[in-house]
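F.,

This is the one I mentioned.
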């Protein structure tokens, strides 16, 4: 299993760190340099963590885990109205970013009122483009229990955040955090900050389980390796959108139009194979604004190879 960590320190001897990451089979996910200071987010095999940590300390830097780096998470409210999109939703999204995740905030079109709350197929498919979803549903227990259909069929890990303590909804979501309802001010006090940490920890737990499932049948190639290939593609390099390449646990999002670039990306090569043969490449449901790449597992590639071999006989 891979572990994501961040190095903060100087540029001095950083070449040694890059070499070690490569030697242990790790991947540099992101690097930012400001003058003589350097920040590197890397994904390395768990058994080599201590070796990398020792080098980071030796070259004068600090290293810390960023457990949600390499993930994209949706924070969902019932609507975009001020009644349903309060400060805590923004605070939750910001806290997840501190843990390394890329986050987006969403509101549903018909989420108001326990009798009329709905989620349509398109909204559910958009949410399922992300690694996980956090649903924040407010203060009223009866209302939240009536809205369980909003997330019960979502096929990515769901963490439910609410004001009251809920019972009987464990089968509808992967984790529940109570004590965070609607409020008109930012979450600044020590107990509120602790509650945000609890939410981030629950998201980390459900994603850790998802990582373990992926490890049972590993991906054919690490998402960071495809990211390294796409960084040299000029439309990606020239893209002005924030984070034009966003890593997912099982692939990545490329923020350029599908119709114009999918064929070119599909014909790029990794380990002697075309990307379209080792990945599923589809358009985002958000107005063709980006390309979604899901990497096939080792068993899926073996099955495809066996099927092609049988067809040739």
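My design for it:
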């Amino acid at each position: 299993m891979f572990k994501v960590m961040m190095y903060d320190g100087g540029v001095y001897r950083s070449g040694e760190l890059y070499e070690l990451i490569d030697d242990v089979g790790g991947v540099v996910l992101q690097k930012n340099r400001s003058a003589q200071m350097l920040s590197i987010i890397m994904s390395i095999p768990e058994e080599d963590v201590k070796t990398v940590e020792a080098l980071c300390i030796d070259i004068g830097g600090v290293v810390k885990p960023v457990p949600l780096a390499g993930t994209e998470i949706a924070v969902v409210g019932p609507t975009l109205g001020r009644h349903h999109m309060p400060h805590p939703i923004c605070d939750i999204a910001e806290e997840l970013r501190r843990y390394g995740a890329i986050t987006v905030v969403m509101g549903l079109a018909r989420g108001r009122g326990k009798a009329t709350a709905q989620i349509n197929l398109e909204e559910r498919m958009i949410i399922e483009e992300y690694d996980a979803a956090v649903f924040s549903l407010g203060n009223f227990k009866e209302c939240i229990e009536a809205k369980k259909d909003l997330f019960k069929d979502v096929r990515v890990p769901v963490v439910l955040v609410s004001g009251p303590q809920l019972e009987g909804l464990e089968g509808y979501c992967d984790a529940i955090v109570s004590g965070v309802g609607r409020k008109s001010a930012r979450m600044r006090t020590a107990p509120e900050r602790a509650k945000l940490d609890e939410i981030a920890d629950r998201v980390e737990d459900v994603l850790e389980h998802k990582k373990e499932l992926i490890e049972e049948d590993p991906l054919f190639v690490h998402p960071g390796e495809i990211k390294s290939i796409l960084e040299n593609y000029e439309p990606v390099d020239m893209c002005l959108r924030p984070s034009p390449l966003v890593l997912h646990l099982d692939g990545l999002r490329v923020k350029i139009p599908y119709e114009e670039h999918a064929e070119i990306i599909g014909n790029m090569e990794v380990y002697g194979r075309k990307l379209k043969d080792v990945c599923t490449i589809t358009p985002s449901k958000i107005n063709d604004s980006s390309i979604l790449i899901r990497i096939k597992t080792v068993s899926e590639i073996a099955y495809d190879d066996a099927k092609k071999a049988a067809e040739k006989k």
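The chain has a mean pLDDT of 88.

Talk soon.
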